[in-house]
Structure to design on (477 residues):
């Protein structure tokens, strides 16, 4: 026990902190050797935990030992270079250290007054990111717009929807029926979820047809908007996707934006994973037309070496967002807020409290620099394009969708049973981890390339495993 009661002493914290950093470094060094997917049955982790909390405090050494004994075997190792599922979740040393510093400082960044540095660093780093990705200048904080760090793209689309509704109907927006939201069939489920949370009826979300590349069809969008207006309904927001979850399809933002501008409809662009690609100047075509958007988001925690959670959310005009979100009780009133000279990020999000997320993003950008980020993004795309080329040249496998960036969707020509059998067998083995989708009704394996330490040899090994396992599945079918 420390000299001041039950707290951990500074000396003990220093000692255990070193032990924990060593543990994390060893974990990351050895994660490639672990089975990628958790090798436990439902309930197995809880069965190893005591039924009641300890009466007396326990040594930190015992806690860390139980991490090894109980927790690690129950993890799917997202940081493994053999993790190709869902999306990259590629943390890094500077990001981990930034998160540790944020936890150690323990500040609340809800108001400028509660920690000025937390607010001003966030504003500054978000302006850096505008330059880093070549985003429209209207998203910078020195104009009417600006950026904020949300926890995820799901929160960003909800905030965008609340701002869009407020712009249409003001304070009565939550009671006003007849507002509609438009997105493609391939868009993330967070759009529908945001509508539900905001109180929109289920039929207010219009799912627009896609083209041969699974991107939103702007002509179909135009017809739907026109039909709704003819029926006396009011289009509220369109959500375009730059890199859909299923196939990495990229909606034609310019055509959609021009329609939204003509119709006076809020356009939100969701580039959750793929937005990171724009650090490379030759890939900024993915954002063509973004200057027509009212809001935009992408996740550094999905390909920019920043641990979850960290979503960069931008608005071209912050006024409707703040008006939709701001409630100022007496206990939050202060001179800085009353002056109007500061940003209070509590008015840019759903919760009041907020962590100092900007530290880890600041650390990542400063550590890698623009050159380092570009190097790794280009390398990941090169690996994915190599895999796509191997698939195209193979007699037994085929691409299920175009592969513009770092996601490759493939299937076996023998049919769904073989494709699904290959994926399930590989995931069960622990050698790699893959996830699936359906494209045109057929089962498809998604290969997402982008973990921090994934190298060409890991992608080559995956391709060898896919082909060999397909032979095994067909031999036992």
């Amino acid at each position: 026990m420390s000299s001041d009661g039950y707290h951990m002493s500074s000396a003990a914290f220093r000692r255990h902190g070193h032990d924990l950093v060593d543990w994390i470094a060893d974990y990351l060094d050895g994660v490639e050797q672990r089975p990628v997917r958790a090798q436990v049955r439902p309930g197995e982790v809880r069965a190893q935990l005591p039924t009641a909390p300890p009466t007396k405090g326990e040594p930190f050494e015992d806690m860390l030992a139980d991490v090894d004994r109980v927790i690690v075997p129950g993890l799917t190792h997202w940081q493994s270079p053999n993790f190709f599922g869902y999306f990259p979740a590629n943390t890094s040393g500077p990001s981990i250290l930034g998160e540790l510093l944020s936890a150690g400082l323990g500040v609340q960044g809800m108001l400028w007054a509660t920690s000025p540095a937390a607010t001003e660093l966030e504003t500054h780093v978000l302006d850096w990111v505008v330059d880093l990705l070549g985003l429209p200048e209207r998203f910078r904080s020195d104009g009417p717009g600006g950026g904020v760090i949300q926890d995820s793209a799901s929160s960003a689309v909800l905030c965008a929807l609340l701002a869009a509704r407020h712009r249409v109907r003001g304070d009565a927006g939550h009671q006003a029926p007849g507002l509609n939201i438009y997105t493609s069939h391939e868009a993330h489920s967070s759009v529908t979820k945001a509508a539900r949370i905001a109180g929109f009826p289920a039929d207010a979300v219009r799912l627009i047809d896609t083209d041969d590349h699974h991107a939103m069809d702007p002509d179909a969008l135009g017809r739907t908007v026109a039909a709704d207006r003819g029926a006396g309904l009011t289009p509220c927001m369109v959500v375009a996707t730059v890199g859909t979850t299923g196939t990495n399809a990229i909606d034609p933002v310019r055509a959609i934006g021009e329609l939204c501008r003509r119709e006076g409809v809020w356009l939100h662009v969701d580039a959750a994973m793929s937005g990171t690609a724009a650090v490379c100047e030759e890939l900024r075509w993915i954002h063509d037309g973004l200057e027509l958007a009212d809001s935009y988001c992408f996740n550094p925690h999905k390909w920019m070496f920043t641990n979850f959670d960290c979503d960069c959310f931008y608005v071209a005009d912050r006024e409707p967002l703040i008006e939709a979100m701001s409630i100022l009780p007496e206990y939050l009133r202060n001179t800085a807020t009353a002056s109007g000279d500061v940003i209070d990020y509590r008015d840019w999000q759903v919760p009041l409290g907020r962590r100092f997320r900007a530290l880890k993003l600041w650390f990542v950008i400063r550590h890698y620099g623009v050159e380092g980020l570009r190097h790794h993004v280009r390398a990941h795309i090169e690996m994915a394009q190599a895999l796509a080329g191997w698939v195209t040249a193979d007699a037994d496998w085929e691409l299920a969708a175009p592969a513009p960036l770092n996601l490759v969707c493939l299937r076996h020509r023998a049919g769904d049973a073989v494709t699904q059998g290959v994926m399930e067998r590989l995931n069960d083995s622990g050698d790699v981890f893959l996830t699936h989708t359906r494209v045109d009704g057929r089962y498809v394996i998604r290969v997402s390339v982008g973990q921090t330490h994934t190298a060409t040899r890991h992608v080559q090994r995956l391709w060898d495993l896919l082909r060999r396992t397909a032979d095994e599945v067909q031999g036992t079918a």
Summary: The longest helix spans residues 358-393. The two ends are 62 Å apart (CA to CA). The first strand starts at residue 146 and ends at 150. The mean pLDDT is 94.
